[in-house]
Amino acid sequence: MRFVSTRATAGQAAHGATLSEALARGIAPDGGLYVPERFPALGTAEFDGCATLPEVAERLLAPFFAGDPLAPQLGAIVREAFDFPVPLVRLHPSPAGGVDDDAHVLELFHGPTAAFKDFGARFLAACLARIPRADSRPLTILVATSGDTGGAVAAAFHRRPGTRVVVLYPKGLVSPRQERQLTCWGDNVTSLCVEGTFDDCQRLVKAAFADERLRAGYELSSANSINVGRLLPQACYYALASLETWRRAGKAPGFVVPSGNLGNVLACVWARRVGLPIGAILMGFNANRTVPDYVERGEWRPRPSIATLASAMDVGNPSNMERLRHLHPEWRELAGAVGAVSVGDDEIRARIRADRGALGQTWCPHTAIAAEAYARLSPGKRSGTPWVLVATAHPAKFPETVEPLIGAPVPVPEPLARLLELPSRAIPIPASLDALREALP
Ligand SMILES: *Cc1c(COP(=O)(O)O)cnc(C)c1O
Hints:
This protein is α/β, with parallel strands linked by helices. The chain has helices at 10-13, 19-25, 53-65, 74-81, 117-128, 148-157, 176-183, 198-210, 212-217, 228-249, 263-274, 290-297, 321-327, 331-337, 345-359, 365-375, 379-382, 399-406, 414-421, 433-439, and strands spanning 3-5, 34-36, 88-91, 102-107, 139-144, 163-170, 189-195, 219-222, 254-258, 281-285, 339-342, 386-391, 427-430.
């Protein structure tokens, strides 16, 4: 299997990259994003006997690894990366109130940093650790984060020989618990608290990659959400949840996915494309309406992001839209393939309160958007179809928002509690390339 750039023309596409090259490079040399040159066709029967996430993942990803030096190690990679549970939990009654509704929640927050980013970060780390490198210097992974990605990447690479992680996060713009997760590591992880916004952090990472002096001194890599090594592992939990539903109910479930940069939902679209039993895909957005407006009207108008309660989804120009449009170049076709709704902060608050009372469920602000989007489905779309609501983070990551709404403390899961006890270390820097150069280990 070759991976080609979304910006390649037909002739160039023939070259493409191997999986290992695509993983190591992150972004394609022409500035586009890597996508598989074609999608394999796998029916449900091909997953007979696959019951766990590593088993499903090994079957699903084998065609994507075919011909790559990593192929013989696929089994070891998925067993190492996916070593925590992925429960699919029944909701009864459903967030829409119906006792006959077939609604489940897919809990993606049981990894070390309590958000779905752990799947991609751990998988990417397990792959990169197995790609032989000619360079004897450590691989320095730069990651700009608005909250969850940096912690997941730091956790995944912490104490891995031959690698260093440098996390850049915007001062005062991440939640206190997210900040602890970004700064508790030490060893081969350096945390930089940048005087600026998330956009400044991203700009600095890009500038570092373009800087001759830094490139001469370091072997740099990035682990941001455009790396194809984060999408492939995410497709695996959609495969598992769809197969579990298919085996139980004999029907293909719909999925509701809280979305920002579209990495998570794109993995769901890819899983459906491969042939897994997945019906409707509904994206839930916060007040950042770039994608819902496009799906509604066919005009692509990226804009600056707006700050919301679901801050990990505050994206005004989602980079993975380039992959979604590569798959569905026609607006009408794209609007037929995925749905999009936008949920405001007041509705997030109301949904967290309501479902705590009626269902005993505590949502994080991002997951509350999926619950609200589900509740808004017309009865015709809802009844008779199994639906899976994707829970992207544990509510204990956002106590400032959630606890006043439910009037109770949110118990902290054990892996998260352990991280929160560690001492916190960050180097404050102004948002300049000189300062970044000086702060690099
Ligand atoms: C990153 C994140 C999202 C958004 O995921 P995308 O892949 O960017 O669409 C949603 N919820 C949480 C908790 C996140 O950390």
